[in-house]
Amino acid sequence: MEKITIYHNPRCSKSRQTLEILQNKGFEPIIIEYLKTPLDLEQLKRLRTHLALEDLVRTNENVFKELGLSLANEAQVLEAMVIEPILMQRPIVTFKGKAVIGRPPEKVLELFD
């Protein structure tokens, strides 16, 4: 059986709430603290197949502007996310070939429809 994975930032209230929803539903997700264990380029590309780039990246982060990034240059954005994992939106939950961003946290329930 495929496990649920959450790309988690424990300092983020939405991420904590999403994890709590999963646990309350009886799931024991694989928890990846992506700031401690950044995703590599291939992992980001796999997530990108399920999520729009504008949903995957936090364009409001200062580093996005400091690096002069543009959503028009997907390769550059994904490469920057490897180096600066703070650019990744959170939380992201994957299950059975689907991915959602837990904003709002209840959105995670869409994975089980």
UniProtKB/TrEMBL annotation:
Reaction(s) catalysed by this chain's protein: [glutaredoxin]-dithiol + arsenate + glutathione + H(+) = glutathionyl-S-S-[glutaredoxin] + arsenite + H2O
Domain of life per record: Bacteria
One GO MF term: arsenate reductase (glutaredoxin) activity
InterPro entries for the chain: Arsenate_reductase (IPR006659), Arsenate_reductase-like (IPR006660), Thioredoxin-like_sf (IPR036249)
Pfam families for the chain: ArsC
Segments crossing the lipid bilayer: none
CDD domains per the UniProt record, alphabetical: ArsC_ArsC
Entry's EC annotation: 1.20.4.1
Annotated keywords: Oxidoreductase
Family under the similarity heading: Belongs to the ArsC family.
NCBIfam families: arsC
Protein name: Arsenate reductase
Provenance organism: Legionella pneumophila (strain Lens)
